[in-house]
Amino acid sequence: MSLEHETLLTLTREQFPTIRDFNCEVEPIVKGGSDRHFYRLNWTDNRHDPMILMVYTMARRDNPKFVPATRRLAKLHVNVPSIQAFDEHRLCVWLDDLGRVDLHSFRDQPWSIRSPLYEATLNEVAKIHRVSEDQLTRADHAELEPEFDEALYGWEQNYFLEHYVQGFLGRDYLNKPYDNAHEALRRLRRRLASLPRCLVHRDFQSQNVLIRGAEAWFVDYQGLRLGLAEYDLASLLYDPYVNLTRTERKHLLSHYANHRDLDITLLTEVFYLCAAQRLMQALGAYANLSRNLGKPHFEQHIPSAITNLIEVCREADLLQELRPLFA
């Protein structure tokens, strides 16, 4: 066992003295683009349930928001892991182990199997989306990440322009041929910022949904903030890690609208605008992670994200003006 793993076990035994003498294996969990580190703690004699140890840094503003976000979602009866222990000084959190099966792992299964899992996922996230902005206090706002507003949508768009359009494609997006695209970006962020906000997960994609039986459980929600429910829906239904057909997306949008008694026409309109916004953010992230942060495997997701963005831009006149940036 490595010195690092021995240290993690020492910290764990300090938190849980009753299992101090139990044999334990430390299994690193390598997943995603986060700067946090995750470990599965398996007691080899099965005398205790496995746990997940999350070790984080203060390098990202949202990392310390994980614990308050977990507590907030638990109060809303959202399926999230229970916190077994929290060492704020050592930046360690011990959590229930929700297992290894995520929604992404069903990507090649027949739709008859995937459909109820996606429906359960949408039903669960609706518990988050039902919390509107006017229900939150000033103290609540302080615990959340900065809300989606025109400035944050603008930041996501600039992230896409800098890292994907210029960094990955090598295009000077400030040139005059892109003037109409910049105007479309401005109109897009103003439109999204004008809409009523609710709580959102923020990184609602298939690898952040764990499946236990027929239930959906959420992880990686430390970006919890005020935004648009349609942004979460777009993150899941246009997830570049999974291929969904247009028919499947329409079915799931209708399911969500019926579940929440929403106008499907308005929901669909805003959904496509949010999908363009989210896919641009994702493309910026894939380009930055692969080119600048030493994680080249993220580049493999760019073609799927571009295919999705091309499809989305066909759905609204406003979005068609974005095509010169990436087509």
Q: Tags for this entry?
A:
327 residues, Phosphorylase Kinase, domain 1, globular, five-stranded antiparallel sheet, Aminoglycoside 3'-phosphotransferase, Chain: A, domain 2, alpha+beta, 11 helices, 2 domains
Question: Explain this structure to me?
Answer:
The chain has 327 residues and is an alpha+beta fold. It folds into two domains: 3-96, 2-Layer Sandwich (Phosphorylase Kinase, domain 1); 103-325, Aminoglycoside phosphotransferase (APH), C-terminal lobe (Aminoglycoside 3'-phosphotransferase, Chain: A, domain 2, Alpha-Beta Complex), CATH 3.90.1200.10. It is built from eleven helices and nine strands. It has helices at residues 3-15, 66-75, 111-129, 138-143, 150-168, 179-193, 229-237, 246-260, 264-291, 302-313, 317-320; strands at residues 24-29, 37-43, 51-55, 83-87, 92-96, 198-200, 209-212, 215-218, 225-227. Strands 1-2-3-5-4 form a five-stranded antiparallel β-sheet, sandwiched between helices. A two-stranded antiparallel sheet has the order 6-9. Helix 3 (111-129) runs parallel beside helix 8 (246-260), helix 5 (150-168) packs across helix 9 (264-291) and helix 9 (264-291) runs antiparallel to helix 10 (302-313). The longest helix has 28 residues, at 264-291. The radius of gyration is 21 Å and the shape is globular. The termini are far apart. The model has no long low-confidence stretch (mean pLDDT 94).
